[in-house]
Structures
1.
Amino acid sequence: MSEPYSAAGGLVRVYPAREPNGTGLVWAHGGAFAFGDLDMPESDWVASQLAARGTTVVSVDYRLAPIPEGWDAAGRTAGAHPYPAASDDMLSAWAWTVDNADRLRVDRTRLAIGGTSAGGNLAAGAALRLIERRAEVRPALALLAYPTLLAVQPAPDAALRAALDAQPTADRFGPDLVLAMYENYLGGPVDRAPLGAIPGRARPVDLVEFPPTLMVNGEVDELRVSGEAFAASLRAAGRPIDVLAEPGTEHGHLNRPQEAAASMTLTRFAERLAALPALAPASR
């Protein structure tokens, strides 16, 4: 089968690679933990494009948190699933993919995890939980697109603050909104949230087995601050991490396939996936 199909009891949509190169990707869309679906471009378009380039993509239809009071639901049915529902769904999707790797024509040592925005959080959090559980098969790579990784977000530096001020439509992820988003996701205060929910709180000692990571942030995006903080912790842990801000972008550019930057980021991901070695390190 070469067309996308539902699997794992409806938990995932599988995008089989047209000409498989052995790589696989468990992928999560964004949407502030409360919105989003498998048909949005950063889910469907990204998965289709990567499948056309050789990677089988397993896109996760994770359970959504409630829509925060005062947020525009735009007629959408509210979810009712705070943490750890979405994170547990990521782990279930990962386990299903590992169990079905042979049928999917995926090399388990070349299986990655990733996502966009809140989905990037879910991917990083799932990687940390797999490490904590000493899972036999863990991600060979993490692909994070403009992830949100901290509930209490540091202030942007002067250059980013000036860019946000000059581009008001991009300035939509201030600290109060981000904190409210996480409190809604957690169903309560963030103070004692586990690392699986707020991966950006991980210390270098927590990250010594985190997979090699490619992170592509929006250039004018306040969430970039949390991604860069996480990248700094990965470097301190001695982990391979490449992080960049895609030029000319604000948050969510993979949802806008008509923009050249979306294709650029997708090419970066496809090339990194294709470069995964056929044999994983002995620790895996």
Note: The radius of gyration is 17 Å.
2.
Amino acid sequence: MTVHQVTSVTDRPGAPYAGRAQATRRPRIAMTARRHRAFYMFTSPWILGFLLLTVTPMAYALWLSFTTFDGISPHWRYAGLGNYRELLNDPVTWDALGRAGLFAVTSVPLSIVAGLALAVLVNRPLKARGLFRTLLYLPAVVPPVGAGLAFKLLFDQNSGAANGVLTFFGIEAVGWLADPYARYVLLMAVLWGAGNVMIISLAGLQDVPRELHEAARIDGASAWRAFRSITVPLLSPVLLFQTVTGMIASVQTIMPLLLAPLGDTSGITTIPQSNYLYMMHVFAQYFALGRYGYASALLWVLFVLILIATGLIFKLASGAVFYNVDPEAKK
């Protein structure tokens, strides 16, 4: 091959355009790389926290669920699926799980209805509306320990304000913190913190277009019909979110432990039977009996059940939730 037969790259047809395209591609690649670095830099605190504070404890609890570890003694052994087999044959576990499910089925709808009613109330053009919103939301800011102690003092059989009102009208004092009234006190404690649901519902109400309500009023629709046919469908994503998060929070509540009368240091033996929920059973296995392996198995079963329940809620609500934008639409 002679020198004249060799054609340089710059002499080939289209070579200047190819060089220009490569030069344009390089800055784009650099810009994309910088964006990726910035993304991971800003999200790294959350990623590290998630790995260290969520994934690691869950993995450790999963490993504990296959052992007989008691938290203190170095003499433990690998139990395999023994803890899970015991769990399946334990009637106390299933009774506690049933009570937790019943509590979730009753408390979540009541909380959503109460929060939505309060949101509709404070969404009206009232005087001192901001003050009412603050006062109604204030109980949700109170820590659960403080709320539990307040309700324990309020419903104490000997010196509580609730029995004080009853005795004033000549009615005999009631043991509110014992069966069968303890479950109602627990529901009242949950509804007392409905301000959190109210704030989320209020944000959803303010996103409903007023033009739709005005058109419904012109067509002769009543306020209840407009609320049922316009407001509720547009609030359905908010209601779905509150249902899922409320279900998860209700099955993990520790309020019965805070409402228990004074007793032993663990507080488990003084919890009324109606308030002995699933998490109380887990607490008893961990701290009263020192069965870390069995308690970890209980927690992992609860985690799987919550995943299944969340999936069922999304499946059942798929045709009843109205989205302004298709959540599955591809960009």
Note: The CA atoms of residues 240 and 317 lie 8 Å apart.
3.
Amino acid sequence: MTDRAVAVPRSLPVARSHAARRAKRRIRPVLKHVLLVACALTMLYPVLWMVVSSVRPNNEIFRNAGLALTHLRVENYSNGWHAFSQPFSHYLINSLIVVIGAILGNLLACSLAAYAFARLEFKAKRLWFAMMLVTIMLPVHVIIVPQYVLYSQLGWVNTFLPLIVPKFLATDAFFIFLMVQFIRGIPREIDEAARIDGAGHARIFFHVILPLMVPALATTAIFTFIWTWNDFYTQLIYLTDPDKYTTPLALRAFVDQQSATDWGSVFAMSVVSLVPVFLVFLAGQRFLLRGIATTGGK
């Protein structure tokens, strides 16, 4: 009886410690999720404030930092849509033209350059690859002046050509590097089997390698869309005709053209310009995650 009486009290602290550990294990995930939700709301607050401000009267936009609506002004969207001589859809189409051209150029040129670096053997291959990587570190401000002089001599200023043609020359080294890493993860036995069947480099690339590069191609297309759609500096340099303005330039002109800016309409058109980016990212999120994961893991 004495041994049992002593054993029971000793087991109570052990049971309490196990219960405390189980409680901590349950609380930790909850705290992590609460922290993540708080961080997400903090990062999303500017976007949510812009969406709410797009349906507020002008005299309430900068007076209220909250997200509560007291007056609803939906006409901000119609006023912003018809604020220029052209409807806002005209500038959305201009951005779409530039984006489609940039995506096609990057997909074709960068994939070909990546295949050459990953599969072909040529003189000074490592040197050229290193020089290609160095171009990633060059800021656009360093090369914008000689590029502008060149395009001005070619008569390309105030056209979409300076924004599209360079993409067909594999100027985005980041995407070349991404595709090179992806192709290196594809077994060379597949190439050798195709070569035994009589396929050359062109057939191997288009019929063997390219279909296996869908995640990397999707990642390139999504990033190209987002970066080109949101590009302001380069488009501001080369486009001077208001009829050729893209969405970022139209939003900037919207602010500059009035002494008293209709901020409600500006925010309304900003929301409209974000919708394509959101839809593209939402549709390609699965391919984006696969492309980044497989590129870094192989």
Note: The two ends are 65 Å apart (CA to CA).
4.
Amino acid sequence: MSTRPAGHVARSTSRPYSETHSVSRDVTSGGTRLRTFLCTADGVEIDSVYESGSVVYDGDSGAARSVPEPVFVVAHGFTGEADRPHIRRVARVLARYGAVVTFSFRGHGASGGRSTVGDREVLDLAAAVAWARELGHERVVTVGFSMGGSVVLRHAAVGGGGEGGVDAVVSVSAPARWFYRGTAPMRRLHWLVTRPSGRLVGRYGLRTRIHHRQWDPVPLSPVEAVPRIAPIPLLIVHGDQDGYFPLDHPRMLAAAAGEHGELWVEEGMGHAENAAPDALLGRIGDWAVARAG
């Protein structure tokens, strides 16, 4: 669904937010809240929210000083967006462990562009990570769910741990391979993405604008990306009741990760953000704080 692979353009050094949009800044009892549109390396505007209780701004310049807490950059699943209740719940729990950036992938919610279902979305995540760094955070943890889980894996494989990279990666309910149709929900998703009538349902029923182009070339698969993430700490989380991707998917990812990855198989858990209980999100926060250095 793209004319070009995401590749290293995800590490663009251009300013991470568009100067045509103002930054909305609020100071609440929970800390500082910023909302803006970030501009990706390929020119798509991404609706993004930052929440923290620890950012310190220098005088009138508005420049942020480095803050000790990590920042969690949350990548939602397909048809999600930053304002959906389950994403806000994830953000609230992770805010106990650090600052949080949430955003809507291209084609979702108020963001521009059209969804490429995991291909160009690497650029959206790269813009969010760059913004977190610009706000003064030295430690960045990406947490992705379903489609977002595949995106955080590919982003870490491309960006590594250097400037613009991340310090830890958490992938929840992600596929290991593309074009999987082995479950009824995934067959419905393929209809939604590949058929004109499905894309209409996506646009008007699910608030998700889906690109009509097929992938060309096919992006690096999650299982191919995982070995390239080392030595960045990696956590793979999957429910044993996931209706989209059975357990061979996380096991393939864990096998590809080798010693640098951990696998948590959660008893009774279904798929992605909606199914992740607060207790699990808290354990993810603890893991990230311990591993991100």
Note: The longest strand covers residues 31-39.
